[in-house]
Amino acid sequence: MSTIELKSNLIKILNKIDDEQLLRTVYEFLKESKTSEPGQIWKTLTEDQRKEVYSSYEESQDDKNLINWEEVKKKY
Q1: Are 22 and 72 in contact (CB under 8 A)?
Q2: Which pLDDT does position 35 carry in this prediction?
Q3: How far apart are CA 52 and CA 6, in angstroms?
Q4: Of the candidates 14, 37, 38, 48, which lies 20 to 30 Å from 28 by C-alpha distance?
Q5: How far apart are CA 16 and CA 75, in angstroms?
Q6: How far is CA 6 from CA 1, 9, 10, 63, 64, in A?
Q7: Over the stretch 13-63, which tens digit does the pLDDT of each residue have?
């Protein structure tokens, strides 16, 4: 998928979201990732938050824990 297609798809998804808190969260994430240096966000996490990230990553390695992308798109 090209950059143009990715941007277009992101815009389509965002336009379907009515949850203001979710939109703010996505906005803050994108804004922070654009303005921060690599690794800066990780440094702000607590030890518990880092453990949760590692745990989530490990769980994602098992296909039965994953949600089909089409299901995610339907929800949002």
Answers
A1: no
A2: 79
A3: 28
A4: 48
A5: 10
A6: 7, 5, 6, 24, 26
A7: 999 999 999 999 999 988 887 777 888 878 889 999 999 999 999 999 998
CB distance 44 to 38 below 8 Å: no
Q: Which two tokens stand for residue 72?
A: 């995610």
Closest CA to 14 of 2, 4, 24: 24
Of 32, 30, 4, which Cα lies nearest the Cα of 12?
Answer: 4
What is the C-alpha R_g of the chain?
15
Structure tokens of 56?
């989530």
Residue 59 is predicted with a pLDDT of 93
